[in-house]
Amino acid sequence: PGKKVLIVYAHQEPKSFNGSLLKIAVEELTKQGCIVTVSDLYAMQFEPRATRNDIVGHLHNSEVFNYSVETWEAYKTGALSKDLVEEQKKVQEADLLIFQFPLFWFNMPAILKGWMDRVLVQGFAYDLSKAYDGGLLQDKLSLFSFTTGGTQETYSNKGINGDIRYVLWPIQHGIMHFCGVKVLEPHICYAPEHASEEKRKEMLTAWTQRLKTLWKEEPIDCSPEWYFK
Question: What domains does the chain contain, in order, with CATH numbers?
């Protein structure tokens, strides 16, 4: 009870299957006494592009623009744009980050990738001397909950798409673990668009059930072996 959860949601349609997964998470976690915040990126018209607009005021080096250097300097002096500061505050306060999205081209949608690019700046989420287990966002949990177009068989190591874990390596390991965030087992709903109504209901029920015992789960072993064994 009293845990804070941030759900970063990337889908255009509230009536979608992803929308249903979001609704369940908000209801179930609120019922548990959690304080749930949702960043609905499409509804917010979140800007995914990392540009000099992310820095308010003077640039550290106005001759040559280097985004990572400029945002790092701006973070230290409180000169990041308002939308970034708001998202960073939500991340800072959260015990758990849930990312809810449909898989696009073996990756997260551009709007969500843009959120990662812009919000998780150096100084806030990581420092080059403090990454992975030393990352700056330790003591937080994350969970990637997403839908696929392909079936589970196509995402097995013998399937045409290869093991789904390969897809998770850059997002779970390269972003979350890099920033020090512990990673829970992903929640994957395979091909809901092509499933029967009954199967879709089963998927939603499974998500509800998982959320009931979420806080008892142990994070995955964040090592290359988990992804490439």
Answer: 4-228 (3.40.50.360)
